[in-house]
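Forwarding the complex inputs:
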Amino acid sequence: MHAKPAPTAVVADDERLMREQLVGRLKEAWPELMIVGEAGNGREAVAMVQSLEPDIVFLDINMPEMDGIKAARALAGQAHVVFVTAYDQYAISAFDHGAIDYLLKPVESERVALTCRRLRERLTQEPDPMNDLLEQLSQRLGSGGVKPREYMRWVQASVGANIRMIPTSDILFFRAEDKYTRVQTESFEALIRTPIKELIDALDPNEFWQIHRSTVVRVDAVAQVSRNFRGNQMVHVKGCEEKLEVSRSFNHLFKQM
Amino acid sequence: MNTDQPGPGAGNAAEREKGTPALQASDTRQTLRDIGSALVVLWWRFFDWLALVSWKTLLIVSLLGLIPASIVKSHQPFLLLVFASVIIKVVAGGKRRAELTASQATKRAETEQLERTVLEARMEALQAQIEPHFLFNTLASIDQLIQTDPPRASRMQQSLIRYLRSAMPQMRDGGRPSLGQQVNLSSAFLEIMAVRMEERLEPVVNVPEGLKSAVFPSMMLQTLVENAIKHGLEPKSAGGRLEINAEIVDGQLAVHVRDNGMGFMPKTDDGVGLANIRERLKALYNGRAELIISVPPEGGTCATIKVPYEIAPPGA
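Prediction (whole assembly, two chains):
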């Protein structure tokens, strides 16, 4: 019936012990199955499947370089996929409803035997690319796919001799000064080269407001807004003496309720 | 706000009232005592009001009071009362006002302290959660080693037991955790990960004996170690080195977790882990501790926690 005499498989997992375990159990459950390759990450797995063209690929979900779900999407329809995972609640609930087979680590002999029986039946058909299901999965697991926009959460700045990662939640305000932008926190200040214009695009608009051509302030750090003798709004920031002027075009931000 | 603040005398009187049951006392005496204590309460209320009221209001109230007083032709005693009020306000008002604001401030501080303690407890519990992914993967590795290398399986299982034992009771233990405990916990974790990741993980623990008795909050070091593996080394095919160091800098205990892995991504939302540490440090040390993430010139990530240097009480 088959063109190929013996079915073949590739096993991918970043931990050698886990590959050994799966290979051992597969040998017991399905002695005719030939393991033609073992991969240590997703990228290797994809390359191996493309060059060796096995019937089946066992993919660990959590792997370096490229995770199992991404690898499966890259291999859509080229081999029958079985996922292997230790614990992924989203993935497991998705698998239970879908056509994708999966194994839980540590893999049990009976469970492997069941998977092998199913695989023997599936081998008579073309592999299903499972596009929709994988798309859904990768979104739920946060790997690739369409993601909500990511904003800058850390600012990289030199403080003394070191490069420090400052979480945006620690920053009181940014202020343009000559060629640099000053980053002010409660305990220190640092200079970065990124201009205010670029920062305002990268920062979360719910977290930071631009109040002046040269000033961006973290909303939660605003203590109060007063007016100076010329009638300009001045922003007072928690934990900092400096007052920040609001230019007319940004006055609407601090209108009275 | 002054109505629910009876003076010290009033409180005691009222309490004595409740304390002595009116068994033998006659009804009249009881009534007299009631009236007496009511007067005392009234006096302190008046006193508090006087202390807090603005001069303008006092003036208006006095003028308004003068109208009915002059109608019943008794403006002289009323004026005397006003005069007495002014003197009381001048002499004792400031002190009483300060007392009231102080007691409010204490109350607020106590609530804040309580809120902080509750918050810290909740966040510690969050941080102390053992990742199921880690647990199942480790059990799977032990399962495999039992067949291929039983002595190694046994050693790995012992490390797991050591890890679980120090990771779990921390939530119940009331004592202040020491750096030594925290380093042991993370060492056990690293031993396990080294078996699983093999040559991809090279752990180096370099903490001077003398610093192991220092107080160090629970599970923070472990969170940094887990982060370094999860974001730094596991995603890197070649893996790398993970180093734990501790030193005293300007009277502060600085604990560093350094890796030469993938490096820090400025866009990564640090999730619960680092934000949680930062919040807990704020709650525990109120600005005297910090978490610093820096990028060493040779790449990778270095996370440092600085806390005031204190010796943990023996037996903790």
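Residues 95 and 214 of chain B are 44 Å apart (CA to CA).
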